[in-house]
Amino acid sequence: MQAPGFTLKGVDGKMHSLSEYKGKSTLVIFMCNHCPFVKARINEIVELQSKFKPSELQIIGINSNDPNYQDEGFDNMVKFAKEYRVNFPYLIDDSQDVARAYGAVCTPDPFLLDASGKLVFHGRINDAMEPEAKPKVPVMENNVRALLAGKKIEKDFDPSIGCSIKWKS
Q1: What gap in Å lies between CA 105 and CA 145, rounded to an integer?
Q2: Is the dihedral of CA 165, 144, 50, 133 positive or negative?
Q3: Which residue, 17, 29, 124, 134, is the most exposed by fewest CB within 10 angstroms?
Q4: Rg, C-alpha atoms of the chain
């Protein structure tokens, strides 16, 4: 699957398009502000971005939750990004069109793309299945390293676990 393009507003007030990121890999993560699974993994996601140069891996966070849902919406995204020192673009998908185009269902829901924008892995950040669990296997980091080394990723789908996306009624 070729990743659907998008142009969305980031917490920095600027518009960001998928097409402007030309690195060897891009990780699009559907995430939000209130979900305990996102809060449990956000430091690992920030750490993952800091392990790679943007030319090797660029993470893009997208919030597709109903902006009227408790603790969601743009202002809360700005607070969340500051609180967790988010070091990658965090964008709002208030139409929810991007989440639908990707088939995202939960938060976090990560999609790893290769240099050509093709989906190579849809799945979890690590092996921790509950927010309080301590991860032992850095699934996404291993897959990014395999992709950068030109190796095949063993599984292209390993479902993420999290809160459901809060769709507008």
Answers
A1: 26
A2: positive
A3: 134
A4: 15
Q: What's the pTM value of the predicted model, to 2 decimals?
A: 0.98
Within 8 A by CB and 6+ apart from 69, the residues are: 34, 166
The H helix count followed by the E strand count for the chain is: 4, 10
15-61 pLDDT per residue, tens? 999 999 999 999 999 999 999 999 999 999 999 999 999 999 999 99
Q: Is the pLDDT of residue 169 over 90?
A: no
Is 166 strand, coil or helix?
coil
Q: Are 102 and 88 in contact (CB under 8 A)?
A: no
The secondary structure of 25-70, three-state, reads EEEEEECCCCCHHHHHHHHHHHHHHHHCCCCCCEEEEEECCCCCCC
Which CATH fold topology does 7-164 show?
Answer: Glutaredoxin (3.40.30)
